[in-house]
Specification:
By secondary structure, the protein is of the alpha/beta class. Helices cover 42% and strands 17% of the residues. InterPro entries: Glyco_trans_4-like_N (IPR028098).
C-alpha cells in the first residue's frame, strides 16, 4: 500500500502564469477578464507591473501583483535592460511556467527577461504598433524591421505564441495571421451584458463623442477641426471629448489646449467612469486615429451600445468597422473627409440607427465579446502547458 507521502500522492504544484504589463491601469481596464479566465483554469496568476492606483482592483480577482518600476515613456535602452534584469529575477522567484507579455514595451522587456530566466513558454500580445506602425517614412520602416527581427528572433523561442488584435499588425511583423503560432483576437473584448443599446437621443443635433486618452496620436485635433468645418457648412453637429491626458505619454495633449477647444460646439469633459452613460446620450462614436491601434476598446464599447462608428481607415479600426456597414471609414488626418462623413450622418437619422444596429450585431457574432476573446486566449495557454 502506498504511503501518503509517496511520490504518487504528492500534490501537483499549480502551474503559474505571469502577466507582464507596464501600467497597472492598463491591465485593470482591459485584462481583468483574462486574469479571471486563467484562475478559472486552475492557474496561479501574477501580474508584474508599475503599481499606481489599481492594485486593489487587480488583486480582487485573486491575482498576485508584483511591483516593477519601469518608465513607459523612456526609450533609454540601458533603463530597459535594467528593468529586464530585475524582471528576470522576479520571473525566476515566481517560478513562471508561462510569461504573457502585453503591449510593445512589455514584449521587449518581458521577452528579454524570459530569455534571461530560461522560460521558453512566452505569449507576445501586441496591442498595436503605435506610431511605429503609423509612420510610412524611412524611419517607420526601419523601426518595424528592427521590431520584426527582435520579436521573431532573439526574444522568441520555439514555444512563443503571438497574439494580435488585428491581422495588419501580424503582417507588419512578417507573420502569417493563419500560422499556428499566431492568434488574432477581438481586442480585449467587451461584455455585451454591461454595454447594452439604449434609445437614441433625438436629432438634430448629431451628438458625436470621442472617448479616449487625450493624445495627439488619437487624432483628437482632427475631430475638433472636422466638427468646426461641418458646422461652418451648416451641419448641426456637436462634439464631446471624454478622457484625460496620459502624463506618461509623450503625445499627451495639454489641458490648456483641451480647454481652448471647448467652444463652438466642442466640449471637453475630462475623464469619465460612466462610458455606457456617455453613449446613451450620443449618436456616434468617433476615433480619427493617426494609426497604430490594436483594436480600440472605445469602439468596441460604443458598438456594443448600438452606436454608429466613424473612424480612420487604419489597422485596428478597420478590423471592426466595415465602411457603410457598422459605420464610416475616412482617411487618417483628413479633417475635411471626416467633416463630410459627419455631415452625411447629420441628415440621415435612419442611417445612424442602421449603422448602430449593425455595430451591435458585429459585437455579438464577430468574436468581439469578452467570452470569445478569453476562449481563444485560453486555447493558447493550454497549448503551451501541454507542450
Amino acid at each position: 500500500m502506498q504511503s501518503d507521502d509517496a511520490p504518487g500522492n504528492l500534490p501537483v504544484p499549480m502551474r503559474r502564469l505571469v502577466f507582464v504589463v507596464t501600467e497597472d491601469w492598463f491591465f485593470a481596464s482591459h485584462f481583468l477578464p483574462m486574469a479571471r479566465a486563467a484562475i478559472g483554469m486552475g492557474l496561479s496568476v501574477a501580474v508584474v507591473t508599475r503599481v499606481r492606483a489599481h492594485r486593489a482592483a487587480i488583486e480582487a480577482t485573486g491575482v498576485q501583483v508584483v511591483p516593477l518600476e519601469a518608465e513607459r515613456a523612456s526609450l533609454n535602452p540601458m533603463a530597459a535592460g535594467y528593468a529586464a534584469g530585475q524582471l528576470a529575477a522576479i520571473l525566476k522567484a515566481l517560478k513562471a511556467d508561462i510569461v504573457h507579455c502585453i503591449a510593445l514595451r512589455g514584449i521587449l522587456v518581458g521577452g528579454t527577461a524570459a530569455a534571461m530566466a530560461g522560460i521558453p513558454s512566452r505569449v507576445f500580445a501586441l496591442t498595436g504598433l503605435g506610431l511605429v506602425g503609423a509612420r510610412s517614412d524611412r524611419l517607420g520602416r526601419a523601426a518595424r524591421l528592427a521590431l520584426r527581427v527582435l520579436i521573431r528572433g532573439p526574444l522568441a523561442s520555439s514555444r512563443t505564441r503571438f497574439l494580435f488584435e488585428n491581422p495588419d499588425d501580424a503582417l507588419a511583423l512578417g507573420l502569417d495571421p493563419l500560422d499556428r503560432a499566431v492568434t488574432v483576437v477581438g481586442g480585449a473584448g467587451v461584455d455585451p451584458a454591461v454595454f447594452v443599446p439604449r434609445p437614441l437621443p433625438p436629432m438634430p443635433p448629431l451628438r458625436v463623442a470621442v472617448v479616449a486618452r487625450m493624445l495627439w496620436s488619437k487624432g483628437i485635433d482632427v475631430a475638433v477641426e472636422a466638427v468646426r468645418l461641418a458646422r461652418a457648412q451648416g451641419a448641426p453637429v456637436e462634439l464631446s471629448l471624454y478622457g484625460a491626458p496620459d502624463p506618461s505619454n509623450r503625445r499627451a495633449i495639454d489641458e490648456t489646449t483641451l480647454r481652448g477647444w471647448s467652444r463652438d460646439g466642442v466640449a471637453w469633459h475630462g475623464a469619465t467612469t460612466d462610458v455606457a452613460g456617455v453613449w446613451a446620450g450620443h449618436h456616434v462614436a468617433c476615433l480619427p486615429s493617426r494609426g497604430g491601434e490594436g483594436l480600440p476598446r472605445t469602439l468596441l464599447e460604443a458598438a456594443a451600445c448600438g452606436r454608429a462608428l466613424v473612424a480612420s481607415d487604419v489597422p485596428g479600426c478597420r478590423s471592426l468597422v466595415r465602411d457603410g456597414v457598422e459605420g464610416l471609414l475616412v482617411p487618417p488626418e483628413d479633417a475635411p473627409a471626416l467633416a463630410t462623413a459627419l455631415a452625411r450622418l447629420c441628415g440621415d437619422a435612419g442611417l445612424v440607427a442602421a449603422l448602430g444596429a449593425a455595430a451591435r450585431a458585429r459585437i455579438e457574432t464577430g468574436g468581439f465579446t469578452e467570452d470569445a476573446v478569453t476562449d481563444r486566449v485560453r486555447a493558447v495557454w493550454r497549448d503551451l502547458l501541454e507542450a
